[in-house]
């Protein structure tokens, strides 16, 4: 049976894919990637991070409510 931590970690991992991508053209950290492409990729990643933070915050809030 998965634990709460495992489940939350899986959910966050599904939202925010680990940055294992090689540094090739199209990667936002490559100097040869056009700015518009880099910004679009970074915006997607930022949105995913925001969603992951919301998910974690909701879980912490839910756990805090059960402590009372």
| DSSP helical segment count | 2
Major sheet summary line:
none
The unreliable regions are none
* N-to-C CA distance: 26 Å
> What is the ordering of alpha helices and beta strands?
HH
Q: Report strand %.
A: under 5%
Number of strands: 0
Average pLDDT: 84
Taking all Cα atoms into account, the compactness measure Rg is: 16 Å
**Which range best describes the helical content: under 10%, 10-25%, 25-40%, 40-55%, 55-70% or over 70%?**
55-70%
Structural class estimated from helices and strands: mainly alpha
Shape annotation: elongated
Report on the architecture of this protein.
The protein is an all-alpha fold and 68 residues long. It contains 2 helices and no strands. It starts with a helix and ends with a helix. Helix 1 (4-15) runs antiparallel to helix 2. It has helices spanning 4-15, 35-67.
What is the structure about, briefly put?
The chain has 68 residues and is mainly α.
What is the topological layout?
Blueprint: H1 4-15, H2 35-67
Helix pairs in contact: 1-2
């Amino acid at each position: 049976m998965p634990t709460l931590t495992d489940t939350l970690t899986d959910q966050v991992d599904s939202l925010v894919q680990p940055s294992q991508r090689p540094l090739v053209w199209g990667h936002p950290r490559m100097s040869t990637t056009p700015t518009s492409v880099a910004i679009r990729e970074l915006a997607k990643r930022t949105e995913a991070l925001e969603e992951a933070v919301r998910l974690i915050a909701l879980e912490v809030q839910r756990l805090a409510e059960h402590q009372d």
